[in-house]
């Protein structure tokens, strides 16, 4: 509790973002009922703000995303942080591996100026900072990124979600995904109440019904690269009682194609695209 309070105070000091667009996370409604695909903002509103920053998350909410997707890794001193690459080079003014830096060192870096001067001063968010600001107010799709580099990251994420009271059966308010299926299995054991999603690259194009059945023993979503989506694959995934969110949509025609193939949602750099494609 003391840790949560400390983070809340820090968040109030360092994240002067208005919460005026926020309400409580919308209830999960299947595609058939709402008439459009679930709209997941990739790394926040990736196309409109520096990825995986509080500005990108705020923008995504403002644009009406149903979910915010972000990537979690871990500092040298074991704090879950939100950043995509395993190194700092591309999206901050630092260099080298995330895992070689303490949280204090990571927080001293600039994670916004690479994108534009209006974002100077953005920092790498911690998972706790995100949850203080947005937990319970927006649906989230958390990717365990390179979990093989961070032993124990599954437990750290599970503890944070429980501390913030975000673990409830059937709410779909939080989904956890990973390309590392062993890590995902471990996370599902720690958080059986929460839906989990396997991420698969196009190398899995020839996946069989037996492989899907095995995946469905620990996953609730099968999230493929959009290049491998066919109507047959969608049918098989639904047949094994999983849903499908395809990644990464970067133009409206891809959104339209995926809608016509029957996917349940799209993970997109453009949170404005999913709602262009309706019944
Ligand atoms: O959510 C799917 C997508 O985020 C996976 O790819 O590399 O952007 O994390 P990446
Ligand atoms: Ca991701």
Helix content: 25-40%
CATH topology: TIM Barrel
CATH class: Alpha Beta
User: Count of DSSP E strands?
Assistant: 9
Mean pLDDT: 90
Note the overall shape.
Answer: globular
- Look at the structure and name the CATH superfamily: Phosphatidylinositol (PI) phosphodiesterase
What class do helices, strands and sheet pairing give?
alpha/beta
- What is the CATH architecture term? Alpha-Beta Barrel
Which percent range describes the beta-strand content?
15-25%
Unreliable sequence segments: 4-20
Q: How would you characterize the largest beta sheet?
A: 9 strands, mixed
Can you list the ligands bound to this structure?
A: SN-glycerol-3-phosphate, calcium ion
Number of helices: 10
- Count of all domains: 1
Gap between N and C termini, in Å? 46 Å
Give Rg in angstroms: 18 Å
**Secondary-structure element series:** HHEHEEHHEHEHEHEHEHE
């Amino acid at each position: 509790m003391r840790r949560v309070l400390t983070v809340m105070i820090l968040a109030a000091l360092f994240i002067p973002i208005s919460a005026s667009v926020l309400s409580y996370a919308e209830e999960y409604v299947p595609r058939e009922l709402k008439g459009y695909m679930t709209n997941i903002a990739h790394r926040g509103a990736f196309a409109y703000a520096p990825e995986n920053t509080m500005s990108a998350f705020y923008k995504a909410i403002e644009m009406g995303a149903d979910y915010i997707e972000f990537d979690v890794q871990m500092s040298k001193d074991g704090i879950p942080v939100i950043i995509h690459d395993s190194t700092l080079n591309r999206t901050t003014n630092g260099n080298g591996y995330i895992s070689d830096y303490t949280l204090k060192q990571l927080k001293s870096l600039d994670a916004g100026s690479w994108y534009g001067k209006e974002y100077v001063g953005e920092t790498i968010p911690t998972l706790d900072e995100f949850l203080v600001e947005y937990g319970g107010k927006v649906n989230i799709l958390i990717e365990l990124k390179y979990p093989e580099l961070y032993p124990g990251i599954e437990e750290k994420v599970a503890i944070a979600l429980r501390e913030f009271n975000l673990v409830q059966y059937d709410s779909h308010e939080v989904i956890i995904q990973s390309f590392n299926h062993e890590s995902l299995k471990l996370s599902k054991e720690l958080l059986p109440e929460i839906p989990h999603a396997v991420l698969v690259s196009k190398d899995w194009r020839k996946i069989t019904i037996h492989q899907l059945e095995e995946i469905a023993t620990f996953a609730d979503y099968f999230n493929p690269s959009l290049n491998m989506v066919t109507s047959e694959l969608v049918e098989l995934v639904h047949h094994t009682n999983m849903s499908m969110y395809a990644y990464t949509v970067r133009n409206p025609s891809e959104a339209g194609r995926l809608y016509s193939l029957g996917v349940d949602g799209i993970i997109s750099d453009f949170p404005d695209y999913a709602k262009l494609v309706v019944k």
